[in-house]
Specification:
There is one protein chain. By secondary structure, the chain is α/β, with parallel strands linked by helices. The chain has helices at about 30-35, 55-60, 75-80, 80-85, 100-105, 125, 150-160, 160-170, 175-190, 195-205, 220-230, 235-245, 260-275, 305-310; strands spanning about 45, 65-70, 90-95, 110-120, 250-260, 295, 320-325. The protein has a 7-stranded mixed beta sheet with strand order 3-2-1-4-5-7-6, with helices on both faces. The model is unreliable at about 1-10, about 15-25 and about 130 (pLDDT under 50).
């Protein structure tokens, strides 16, 4: 099917416009997302991370109705042309994907047929120096997806060093987090950090360049940690998994694309817990009671990009997809810390 037609009840619709206004954006693992989500005409899909609209456009082309959610005002504004082209089948909602159940119910839907989440920062945000996400482009040390609330500069300049160590160590998986955090503490006494280049140069000076990993910038893990903390990404992801379980109809599908080990482990643990059908126990102890499984795994292992996609789209190289089919078992409460969300310092609404 061409990008400009639809096989749904909405009739022929020109969907060739770019929802996010970026010709460079390529949806990651799109073929796999479509295979596991299997959108059909007149089904209702929540695209919890609308971004540039790549997934939503593909769902619309297959005749589905879509609720697109994004916390970034730029993404919502950029998607209006796709809304206009969709014949009323695309609704964009500004907000967090952790609240996707509430968004659907507010729009009058008690259940949906599919939910997809593309976790992490979008290429559009990375490409804009003024958003402050990238150590490769100098800009304000910001990193806020919603463009509101505490920024990365606030975190770097105000948090105690012990909290910076935990954030950089846990969320960035940076082995030398104490060295980086103490260097930040010394530097900010002389002058507060305001630019991405200032922080990037400091981290590079502390860690140096690894000749065996020349393609990986030394500041990669520190920037990842700050971005995840500023945006509460792991908290958001865990809460979105709970919300998806609550709003999916029996037979509905949940598809998650993640980009680093923290996200993937969280999703893996969630699906492992929700698809468990028997307790562990031992020959000395009785099997523990296990609640009815709320999901059936659609793949035992994570789905990786093909070699061709990884070569053609650098953002896809670390991507992993996991998917589950909603059973008819009742949803149950989720302890987000039990699936890997760390407890971190509370800072003006962040952490916890």
């Amino acid at each position: 099917m061409s990008a400009g037609t639809s096989n749904g009840a909405g009739g022929d619709v020109n969907l060739s416009v770019d929802g996010g206004g970026s010709e460079r954006h390529v949806p990651v693992l799109l073929d796999s997302v479509l295979a596991y989500l299997a959108p059909k005409p007149d089904e209702l899909i929540i695209d919890g991370t609308f971004g540039a609209g790549g997934y939503s456009r593909a769902f619309l082309e297959r005749g589905a109705h879509v609720i697109g959610v994004d916390r970034d005002p730029d993404a919502i504004a950029g998607g209006q042309s796709l809304v206009e082209a969709s014949n009323g089948r695309l609704t964009l909602v500004p907000g967090q994907f952790a609240e996707l159940e509430a968004h659907a119910r507010t729009l009058g839907h008690d259940g949906v047929d599919g939910v997809v989440l593309d976790l992490g920062v979008s290429s559009m945000q990375l490409d804009q120096a003024e958003r402050g996400f990238s150590f490769m482009r100098d800009g304000p040390l910001d990193m806020r997806m919603e463009q509101a609330g505490p920024s990365a500069a606030d975190v770097v300049n105000e948090l105690p060093v012990r909290d910076l160590i935990r954030i950089i160590g846990l969320l960035g998986e940076e082995k030398r987090a104490p060295s980086v955090a103490h260097a930040i503490e010394r530097a900010r006494l002389e002058r507060p950090f305001t630019r991405t280049a200032e922080l990037s140069l400091l981290v590079e000076k502390v860690l140096g360049r690894n000749p065996k990993k020349a393609q990986i910038h030394p500041a990669t893990r520190t920037f990842q940690a700050l971005r995840i903390f500023v945006n509460g990404e792991l908290h958001q992801a865990a809460q979105a998994l709970q919300a998806a379980e609550n709003i999916l109809k029996p037979g509905g599908r949940l598809v998650i694309v993640s980009f680093h080990s923290l996200e993937d482990r969280l999703v893996k643990k969630f699906f492992a817990d929700r698809s468990k059908t028997r307790g562990g126990g031992s020959r000395h102890l009785p099997e523990e009671d296990v609640p009815p499984a709320t999901f059936e795994l659609l793949s035992r292992k994570a789905i990786d990009p093909t070699v061709e996609e990884a070569e053609g789209n650098p953002r896809a190289r670390s991507a992993k997809l996991r998917a589950g089919l909603r059973t008819d078992a009742p949803a149950r409460d989720l302890d987000i810390h039990s699936i890997g969300v760390p407890r971190l310092a509370a800072f003006h609404g962040l952490g916890g």
